[in-house]
UniProtKB/TrEMBL annotation:
The chain crosses the membrane at residues 12-32, 38-61, 113-133, 154-172, 184-201, 208-224, 230-248, 255-277, 410-429, 436-454, 460-481. Keywords: Membrane, Transmembrane, Transmembrane helix. It comes from the Bacteria. The lineage of its organism: Bacteria, Pseudomonadati, Pseudomonadota, Alphaproteobacteria, Rhodospirillales. It comes from Magnetospirillum sulfuroxidans. This is O-antigen polysaccharide polymerase Wzy.
Length: 492
């Protein structure tokens, strides 16, 4: 009997070279550490960088078959938003400027060994538990049939239903007042566009359909994101399709992902200014109005001016490119959030004793079944408690990353337990859904569920609350579609 596909790798010269390069890089990071990162802190942070880089580098290693780079993506997340950030402190806050994530928020004096040790412990707990449970789950062959395969003709019909539902819902916001259904629209968009993307790669759908989906509907979906001024809403779907490409052609994925990262970095300052101007304009804007705002945005960025919340502009001597990079890095910097929380816990801010984690009980329940379900506004409460935002501000939200959430609830042991639990949960999902050499149906379902879980920047209940209900709904939809297509042969 043939063994199921395995993702275990044998030691090769490529592995040894990768390990050597990562090791040298870690040593250089410690030797060249900035003054506001202590020696012990730099050692712990460098070890965290090495652990994350080892996962990211796995994308480059040759395999006979590929799966979606889920854990590699998580490694990249912790590398960029946590581990590497302390080494960039003098670039992000130059000329000994105070280390503050937000205007008026508590100042960080330095990144010390205790804070960086907490970071290393949390990241290690996550990856160890993830790999242990995933290894066990991938040996369970019965789970390989959790998601039923569907023939191409059925997938095309299902894809059209998902894509049209997704685009129509977003094109007419507020028209369809159905509780909880809006949470399903995002996954349906991933599922529909993902189906057509993978079928296109396999040449199993017509050019006319691809022209309509990717030549008309996808650009329209991107425009709907641009209207809101949200960079994430604009680029999320293209990023998802890039994620799927990794399971098909790893070399093309690396090239496209690198180009996508450059595009995102370049677009970030434009979107920040564009969205800020939108806030001051009226809600009813014509296309001509939006184009004019975009023109003003480009002018603002090109002239090295920073627009304040009062509508005034301040000149800056920094080059536009440096300013853009600093803005992005400061926005992504979660190690500074961790440092503030560590210094202010348990005094003057007491541990939350599971307050945020209790929301995991209610978050999976759809609002259609629980009309008075608590709102997910934890970011505002978190910002107030730790002084990131003023008490009078009831709208602004500060993200509560998973690693930080573990610490604010129970301190050191909570950090380990929460991150280990997160690793177990995501290892279960990845082991059950993300199989090497999977077909179109399983790959697109795995991508739809796993892609949003790469980002651990928001609190756990907000990020994973709808994961299991969405998985259940998708499986039911696929089984119904499979029943309807049962007489036909051929599987994708």
């Amino acid at each position: 009997m043939n063994r199921p596909p395995d993702d275990r790798l044998s030691i090769s010269p490529v592995h040894l070279w990768s390990a050597g390069i990562i090791g040298i890089g870690m040593i250089l990071l410690v030797l060249l550490r900035p003054e506001r990162l202590t020696l012990v802190g730099s050692i712990a942070a460098a070890a965290s960088v090495g652990l994350c880089l080892a996962h990211v580098a796995a994308i480059l290693l040759p395999r006979e078959k590929y799966s979606l780079p889920f854990v590699e993506g998580i490694g990249l997340f912790y590398l960029i938003e946590f581990s590497i950030q302390p080494f960039l402190v003098d670039f992000i806050w130059p000329n000994a400027a105070p280390i503050r994530t937000y205007v008026g928020s508590p100042e960080i004096i330095e990144f010390n060994g205790a804070v960086m040790g907490a970071l290393l412990l949390g990241v290690t707990s996550f990856f160890v538990s993830f790999h242990l449970i995933r290894g066990v789950i991938r040996q369970q062959r019965t789970l390989s049939t959790l998601v039923p395969d569907l023939p191409p003709a059925t997938l095309v019909k299902l894809g059209w239903i998902c894509v049209v539902s997704h685009v129509v819902w977003l094109s007419f916001p507020g028209v369809f007042q159905i509780p909880s259904l809006g949470q399903l629209i995002g996954p349906l968009g991933f599922l529909g566009f993902g189906i057509f993307f993978l079928l296109a790669v396999r040449r199993q759908t017509s050019r006319l359909q691809l022209l309509i989906v990717f030549g008309i509907l996808l650009p329209w979906r991107i425009y709907l994101g641009i209207k809101t001024g949200a960079l994430v809403g604009t680029l999320l779907l293209p990023a998802f399709l890039t994620f799927l490409l990794a399971a098909v052609n790893r070399r093309r994925f690396i090239i496209v992902a690198a180009a996508f990262a450059i595009l995102t970095l370049s677009a970030y300052p434009i979107f920040v200014t564009y969205r800020a101007i939108l806030v001051w304009e009226t809600d009813t804007l014509t296309l001509a109005d939006r184009l004019n705002i975009l023109r003003r945005t480009l002018s603002d960025v090109a002239s090295k001016e920073i627009m304040t919340q009062d509508g005034e502009t301040v000149q800056t001597s920094a080059s536009r490119n440096f300013r853009a990079v600093r803005q992005v890095l400061r926005r992504l910097n979660q190690s500074a959030i961790l440092a503030v929380v560590y210094e202010r816990s348990p005094e003057p801010v007491q541990y939350w004793n599971g307050e945020t984690l209790s929301r995991l009980i209610s978050s999976p329940l759809p609002r259609i079944l629980w009309a008075n379900k608590p709102l997910e506004n934890l970011g505002n409460t978190f910002g107030h408690r730790y002084g990131f935002i003023v008490e009078s501000d009831t709208k602004m939200s500060v993200n509560l990353p998973w690693l930080v959430e573990g610490f604010v609830n129970f301190g050191w042991w909570g950090l380990v337990a929460v991150m280990a639990g997160a690793g177990i949960f995501l290892g279960l999902l990845d082991g059950a859904l993300n199989r090497l050499g999977a077909g179109v149906t399983q790959t697109v379902v795995a991508g739809t569920l796993l892609f949003p879980l790469i980002n651990h920047e928001s609190n756990i209940s907000l990020t994973v609350g709808s994961t299991l209900p969405t998985l259940l709904i998708l499986i039911v939809i696929l089984y119904i579609a499979g029943r309807l297509s049962a007489p036909r042969s051929g599987r994708a």
